[in-house]
Amino acid sequence: MTDCLELLHEAPARALDVPPLLFIHGAYVGAWCWQEHFLPWFAAQGFDAWALSLRGHGGSRTSRPRDTLSIDDYVDDVLRAQERLPAEPILIGHSMGGFVAQKALERHPFPAIVLLCSVPPTGLAGSLLHMLLSSPLALLEMNLFMTGKRKPHRSLVEALFHHQPPEPDLARYLAASGPESLRAIWDMMGFSRIDRTRQHPAPVHVFGAEHDKIIPPDQVETTARFYGTTARILPEFGHTLMLEPGWERAAQAIAQVLQPAAQAA
């Protein structure tokens, strides 16, 4: 089997003079999580909106065993994807995808990156300690789900969402999700930290969610301090904000920080 990357695309009817957006999903999911709401919404605002499924996720195939896939492999996917876009994109990464975006900035210049509830530059250790102390059952269910042993139960759903989507939508989201690479998780535990000295210069916009039980606001603040910027903590959201009721408020906040790019282009 040959590796083949899935790229979903929503073209604007009237495009802004701004770089395209490349959305990078987090663990367990694929580009479909952006197609549900964000891609059509951003296209309607004039952005050329794209979403990548990292290899082994969504519609992206791989010839490798899943658990051998590394963060560097996922960065390779981002670099391959950006070559297919009409111009250098702004990267928008959620959770694990935010960590991948930060690593991609070490290897290629991008106009900007947007981090949504992102794994911090220092890795997952702080997040896992927080979950162990505050949501141990959700952490157990996450680990079981990561290895494909069973679907998540209520504790993990509550950790993913502050306001739960309607049951039919939630069932679709869980059915479309799948296990994550153990190698990639270990990389984020500290084996593949972000090297700020290697990153190309670019604006970094950092967003978190008030009720995020996976990447809590203090971890988001850590990321913002690393980049010398201010974290924007979005109220009344949980971790999976792009699929949560009220997602438009999160999309609007992101679009707002991208407006200066549109004005400067």
Automatic annotation (TrEMBL):
<protein>
    <submittedName>
        <fullName>Lysophospholipase, alpha-beta hydrolase superfamily</fullName>
    </submittedName>
</protein>
<dbReference type="InterPro" id="IPR029058">
    <property type="entry name" value="AB_hydrolase_fold"/>
</dbReference>
<dbReference type="InterPro" id="IPR000073">
    <property type="entry name" value="AB_hydrolase_1"/>
</dbReference>
<dbReference type="GO" id="GO:0042171">
    <property type="term" value="F:lysophosphatidic acid acyltransferase activity"/>
</dbReference>
<keyword id="KW-0378">Hydrolase</keyword>
<feature type="domain" description="AB hydrolase-1">
    <location>
        <begin position="21"/>
        <end position="245"/>
    </location>
</feature>
<dbReference type="Pfam" id="PF12697">
    <property type="entry name" value="Abhydrolase_6"/>
</dbReference>
<dbReference type="GO" id="GO:0052689">
    <property type="term" value="F:carboxylic ester hydrolase activity"/>
</dbReference>
<dbReference type="GO" id="GO:0055088">
    <property type="term" value="P:lipid homeostasis"/>
</dbReference>
<dbReference type="GO" id="GO:0006654">
    <property type="term" value="P:phosphatidic acid biosynthetic process"/>
</dbReference>
